[in-house]
Amino acid sequence: MADEKNIPVTPAADVAAEAPEASAPPEQQRERGGRGQGRGGRGQGGGFGRRPRNDQPGEKTGEELVEKVVFINRSAKVVKGGRRFNFSALVVVGDKKGKVGVGLGKASEVADAIRRGGEMARTNMLAVSLNGPTIPHEVHCRYGGAKILLRPASPGTGIIAGKTVRAVLESAGVKDVLSKSLGSKNAANVVKATLNGLLSLRLREAIYKARGIEMKKAKADEAVAAA
């Protein structure tokens, strides 16, 4: 009996303070439970690394432009009170008709970083030369440590490329192409190398016009050479 009297009793107020979730009303518990923190949360600030719940991950289709999120990076700065996180989003925007742009947005929230990257990509959109659903000729492009090889393909081949190169090619409107990544796997360098390769493409008509050669004469010379 003496042992029972010496057992400390914790007041109910202290128990409620230690477990605020249990003392909260059911509506607040559901509200708190829906706001995840960190990587596993599904709230506004959580869910880093999760794919958006769309039919095609990371893709937003507007009236004419297609926006794709290629890569999201998180950086941390150590300050007196702890760590501050910033996010950078690499976004590709294109109209699938020969225009494509790339933007890198930075913000303290993922949504703001994606929005800024999309705005920057729309501002930096450039026209590329395409030969129908494929590219006019083979091209080897490089940016930093990334090396990309692009080759034209016959109709029905599709886009044979990784997810980073595929995002740029699909946004530009390429449907049949063969590609190979030969260097660094850094997403930003791979995207810029692919964009440089598309910008270096030239159609036959543009080359003849730059050299001052007429198309009819050029075709006649080709026919003579083939005979």
- The CATH topology of the domain at 59-205 comes to Ribosomal Protein S5, domain 2
- Please describe the biggest sheet, giving its number of strands, its sense, and whether it closes into a barrel: 5 strands, antiparallel
Unreliable segments of 5+ consecutive residues: 1-5, 7-13, 15-24, 26-57
Specify the number of helices: 9
- Please give the number of β-strands: 9
Gap from first CA to last CA? 116 Å
Reading the helices and strands in chain order gives HHHHEEEEHEEEEHEHHH
Q: Report mean pLDDT, rounded to a whole number.
A: 78
Which percent range fits the helix content?
25-40%
What is the approximate shape?
elongated
CATH class of the domain at 59-205: Alpha Beta
Q: What would you call the structural class?
A: alpha+beta
Spatial ordering of strands, largest sheet:
1-2-3-4-5
Radius of gyration: 28 Å
Can you name the CATH architecture of the domain at 59-205? 2-Layer Sandwich
Determine the strand fraction and express it as a percent band: 25-35%
Can you give a write-up of this model?
This protein is an alpha+beta fold. The chain has a domain at 59-205: Ribosomal Protein S5, domain 2. Helix content is 35%, strand content 26%. The protein is built from nine helices and nine strands. It has helices at 2-5, 12-18, 20-23, 26-33, 110-123, 163-172, 187-199, 204-211, 215-226, and strands at 59-61, 66-79, 82-94, 99-107, 126-127, 139-143, 146-152, 159-160, 177-181. The strands form two sheets. The protein has a five-stranded antiparallel β-sheet. Strand 8, helix 6 and strand 9 form a beta-alpha-beta unit. Helix 6 runs parallel beside helix 7. The longest helix is centred in the middle third of the chain and has 14 residues, at 110-123. The chain is elongated, with a radius of gyration of 28 Å. The N and C termini lie far apart (116 Å). The relative contact order is 0.10. Mean pLDDT is 78; it is low at 1-5, 7-13, 15-24 and 26-57.
